[in-house]
Write a structure and sequence with these properties.
By secondary structure, the chain is an all-alpha fold. 98% of the residues lie in helices and 0% in strands. It is built from one helix and no strands. The radius of gyration is 42 Å and the shape is rod-shaped. The termini are far apart.
């Protein structure tokens, strides 16, 4: 048994060293997996925040589009009234010059 004990113990030590090495590697992989999951969760939260911001911005664009449309109509109306007044003033002035 002395001979068997001499070869079995070093074999067991090598096997335990191999298991220890694999466990260290597994621990490192688990740490990497945790970091990847944390980044994934952070990215998911950021996407949610950006999505909410996009919804708000879309609402603001719609509001600005409506206001712009109304403002364009108002400016168009004011411009027409302005040219009517100018045309009326020119007609009144030219009519007064002929009669005078």
């Amino acid at each position: 048994m002395g001979e068997e004990g001499g070869t079995v113990l070093p074999m067991m030590v090598r096997r335990l060293d191999g298991i220890e090495s694999e466990l260290r590697e597994l621990r490192g992989l688990m740490a990497q997996l945790v970091r990847v999951e944390e980044r994934s969760n952070a990215d998911r939260a950021e996407v949610g925040r950006l999505s909410a911001e996009l919804i708000l911005l879309r609402g603001e664009v719609v509001t600005l589009k409506e206001r712009s449309s109304r403002a364009g109509f108002t400016v168009s109306t004011i411009e027409r009234v302005f040219w009517l007044v100018v045309a009326g003033a020119v007609a009144w002035i030219s009519g007064g010059a002929r009669n005078g």
